[in-house]
């Protein structure tokens, strides 16, 4: 996986992928998290921090938002957003998605490992070992916590699938939500976003 690609991409990410493009999907995904004041949400990968303003609508600056990404460039953009908005409840960590488990969180997040919710958006389609990462995320979540995936799913090899794959460096035909469905309670999926190309799937641990 070419993380340097994302470092370069970070410079234009918010221009090429403006708020309006994923707004409906993000707003729905974050609503599905059922966040309440004082709770903790982990966002993998957090990219340039486009979700943070959506989380704050529910957390109002309370609790903790843990943003994780491997790209230095993406994290720099996220840090700028945090500073510009004066958000004090956000912790940003540079880490490989494959390494994130209970012991990583314990060591990295000052022993605070209670997660109410996890959002994996536009990441699992690009991560190798995505099944293992979903399993690890579910292990991290508190019992009763909410896991949401927002990502592309275009099972047929179309021109649109090739373009999304080329830009995002993701595999758009992975059965991400089908896999999640086998491991959670109260599974729900909404496949109506971005003309049917983007889904939001929700499950309770
Ligand atoms: C398409 S962006 C999505 C970012 C964000 N979730 C959003 O919706 O705007 C994919 C992100 O995955 C990150 N990434 C790629 N491989 C990773 C890995 N192995 N571990 C953690 N982050 C990774 C990239 O740096 C990039 O920020």
Question: Please, could you describe this protein's structure?
Answer:
There is one protein chain. This protein has a single domain (3-204), classed as Rossmann fold (3-Layer(aba) Sandwich). Strand 6 (185-193) and strand 7 form a beta hairpin. A seven-stranded mixed beta sheet has the order 3-2-1-4-5-7-6. The mean pLDDT is 96. Helix 1 packs parallel to helix 5. It is of the alpha/beta class and 205 residues long. The protein has nine helices and seven strands, in the order αααβαβαβαβαβααββ. It is globular. Helices cover 40% and strands 24% of the residues. The structure holds S-adenosylmethionine. S-adenosylmethionine (SAM) binds at residues 1, 3, 6, 45, 47, 50, 69-71, 74, 96-97, 121-123, 126-127, 168.
Outline of the structure:
This protein is α/β, with parallel strands linked by helices and 205 residues long. The protein has one domain (3-204): 3-Layer(aba) Sandwich (Rossmann fold). The protein is built from nine helices and seven strands.
What keywords describe this structure?
globular, alpha/beta, binds S-adenosylmethionine, seven-stranded mixed β-sheet, Rossmann fold
Instruction: Report on the biggest sheet.
Output: 7 strands, mixed
Helical stretch count?
9
Strand content: 15-25%
What's the CATH class, please? Alpha Beta
Helical coverage, percent range: 40-55%
**How would the global form be characterised?**
globular
Structural class: alpha/beta
CATH architecture call: 3-Layer(aba) Sandwich
Q: What is the CA-atom radius of gyration, in angstroms?
A: 16 Å
Ligand types: S-adenosylmethionine
Mean pLDDT over the full residue set: 96
Spatial order of the strands forming the largest sheet: 3-2-1-4-5-7-6
Under CATH, the homologous superfamily reads: Vaccinia Virus protein VP39
Distance between the termini: 30 Å
Number of strands: 7
